Amino acid sequence: xxxxxxxxxxxxxxxxxxxxxxxxxxxxxxxxxxxxxxxxxxxxxxxxxxxxxxxxxxxxxxxxxxxxxxxxxxxxxxxxxxxxxxxxxxxxxxxxxxxxxxxxxxxxxxxxxxxxxxxxxxxxxxxxxxxxxxxxxxxxxxxxxxxxxxxxxxxxxxxxxxxxxxxxxxxxxxxxxxxxxxxxxxxxxxxxxxxxxxxxxxxxxxxxxxxxxxxxxxxxxxxxxxxxxxxxxxxxxxxxxxxxxxxxxxxxxxxxxxxxxxxxxxxxxxxxxxxxxxxxxxxxxxxxxxxxxxxxxxxxxxxxxxxxxxxxxxxxxxxxxxxxxxxxxxxxxxxxxxxxxxxxxxxxxxxxxxxxxxxxxxxxxxxxxxxxxxxxxxxxxxxxxxxxxxxxxxxxxxxxxxxxxxxxxxxxxxxxxxxxxxxxxxxxxxxxxxxxxxxxxxxxxxxxxxxxxxxxxxxxxxxxxxxxxxxxxxxxxxxxxxxxxxxxxxxxxxxxxxxxxxxxxxxxxxxxxxxxxxxxxxxxxxxxxxxxxxxxxxxxxxxxxxxxxxxxxxxxxxxxxxxxxxxxxxxxxxxxxxxxxxxxxxxxxxxxxxxxxxxxxxxxxxxxxxxxxxxxxxxxxxxxxxxx
Length: 628
Description:
Blueprint: H1 4-7, H2 13-28, H3 39-58, H4 72-82, H5 85-94, H6 105-109, H7 115-125, H8 142-149, H9 155-161, H10 164-172, H11 180-199, H12 209-220, H13 222-232, H14 256-270, H15 304-307, H16 312-326, H17 342-362, H18 373-389, H19 403-406, H20 438-441, H21 445-448, H22 454-457, H23 483-488, H24 493-510, H25 513-520
Helix pairs in contact: 2-4, 2-12, 3-4, 3-7, 3-9, 11-12, 17-18, 18-24, 18-25, 24-25
InterPro entries: GRDP-like
């Protein structure tokens, strides 16, 4: 082997790691129990095998020659499958997929709900929805698809493997894993790790966390990884697999420490005493919670929005049928997998963003009413409504165009290497763990203002410790505390926030999510600002009842027929989820078709919210009439 760096010099490090991490962050926010195990894990694997592999057979191109992207759950299943390069290759051959590799890095880590991607999905899946995935008990749930298409060949094993990225992302939630200089160092260490495999091919090597990030990103680029393996591992004996897979993932918790220790010893001996791990590259176990997922977190009471199923009573039988049919003896059916922490960061960001959206408007950009109890209650209520909506596949980061995911980006200034690998003052290096300040530093500059004040609430000072109060005058400063964290810093705010959440959750479960949004949101949000589109009637919501300004059914802004100047679609008739003056299936406009909406139609639901008047209930809401 020549220079390891030369052998892998093609790797577009910053871009691909950013894309990879965005996908993992989005996966961590998947609602109703998540994608690491359970019903939606096996469904994702089934949808991937039945439908996405059919798309791969033709590799159609979208607008401007762009590669077609899968929905989030299928994108994750595809990524997990590619982590076993030899197994993936043989499975694709058996399925008749001649070109199994992603067309480019965008397709390797991308996911979408755009019209072009939905259209290609529909060609192979028919009425089986692209996004959100069909609910348990629906006409296209796991059990019905098995009856219609037969038992899948690879889905169960694939669902079992979906657990791994939870514990990996947990460690990668520290901001320095998005630092350019840190990744450059990791690149060099990964090259040495490859050489170590050549020297000890029989050993199950366990990567340090920085090496693992490079390795798993590389595996996602399956064609490039295969090319690299062919070059780098040409010295291996014929009985050694050329496509090296991360076998360390299959080690039990009891086996892992010893294998990691042996890998560290081999690495240090091979490279002149160079330390294998330090506090920046060591793994963090699940016993150390991410700060926002800890019991004392200001958003702890809201995290159940992603784990609980508001329709569990109605869907339990269908979930049990799926487990009986595909889950007998399979870990995916019974494993309880903790989330990585990105779910908590996302819900904190989401609630803060929506609360600020209302607060800035209600206070004339922080000029007046900044201490109003009513304003504070309504800002909190608006944030809570977005959190509850996530349980219905709304307000999720379902596309990399989402502002939260765009802020998950590799950049500089998040890490500074010490020559000794220890703090500059000579003190012992701290044990690997999280800092409360991590919650304010991980996202890029465009979204950091929404997180300012979190570190202070979590007890770490962070940027918010020197910040002005949320209502501290017009204009504010760069370090001004975000309104939500100022509100939640007040006495008894935690109990009020929890009560508001429970009330909103109960209303949505008893009626529908659109009615809850109308009651608890006090200012409409533009769904299109998130790059997310809501079409027609799904198993979770009817788009024409949702409480958005634009971006739901009544404003099909991704329709290619839309006038870019005024947003109107003037051609009659619509596509699936169309719109304009008269809508097609799932339409919109002045008069709607099936699942319509738009200027006329829509289930009402009005009123209150936290502190607001009006019907529909809410925390402290009054009687009839409309809320704010």
